[in-house]
């Protein structure tokens, strides 16, 4: 998985939302963060959910439970890079299963 490089200074505390691990006096690593959103017929509510996402989120994965409304289209309109994964099973326990598999490592 790729890392995001950020400048680090000794006299400056890192932002509260991020935790940095110094790798040198001038660089620190902020790990990428993915958000998984299980949804079924949530087109009306997605704007509120996406509005609450911090700008430092690396990836958004929508697990669609076979929605019959515009859930997927609304999600793509709100976050153009959203990854959509179809839910395989039924019930509330299965939406996160496809997205909880570790992503393959990528290089930048």
From TrEMBL:
Keywords for this protein: Cell membrane, Glycosyltransferase, Membrane, Transferase
Question: Keyword Ribonucleoprotein, does the record have it?
Answer: no
Which InterPro entries would you find in this protein's record?
Answer: Glyco_trans_2-like (IPR001173), Nucleotide-diphossugar_trans (IPR029044)
Cellular component terms (Gene Ontology):
plasma membrane
Q: Which Pfam families match?
A: Glycos_transf_2
> According to its UniProt record, in which pathway does this protein act?
Carotenoid biosynthesis; staphyloxanthin biosynthesis; staphyloxanthin from farnesyl diphosphate: step 4/5
GO molecular-function term, one example from the UniProt record: glycosyltransferase activity
Compartment(s) of residence: Cell membrane
Task of the protein: Catalyzes the glycosylation of 4,4'-diaponeurosporenoate, i.e. the esterification of glucose at the C1'' position with the carboxyl group of 4,4'-diaponeurosporenic acid, to form glycosyl-4,4'-diaponeurosporenoate. This is a step in the biosynthesis of staphyloxanthin, an orange pigment present in most staphylococci strains.
Show the PANTHER family listed in the entry.
GLYCOSYLTRANSFERASE (PTHR43646), GLYCOSYLTRANSFERASE 2-LIKE DOMAIN-CONTAINING PROTEIN (PTHR43646:SF2)
Q: What is this protein called?
A: 4,4'-diaponeurosporenoate glycosyltransferase
Organism of derivation: Streptomyces haneummycinicus
């Amino acid at each position: 998985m790729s890392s995001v490089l950020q400048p680090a200074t000794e006299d400056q505390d890192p932002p509260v939302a991020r935790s940095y691990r110094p790798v040198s006096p001038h660089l620190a690593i902020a790990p990428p963060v993915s958000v998984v959103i299980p949804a079924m017929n949530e087109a009306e509510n997605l704007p509120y959910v996406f509005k609450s996402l911090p700008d430092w989120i690396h990836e958004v994965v929508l697990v669609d439970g076979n929605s019959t409304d515009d859930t997927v289209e609304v999600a793509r309109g709100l976050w153009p890079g959203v990854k959509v994964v179809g839910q395989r099973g039924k019930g509330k326990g299965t939406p996160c299963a496809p997205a909880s598999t570790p992503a393959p490592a990528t290089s930048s």
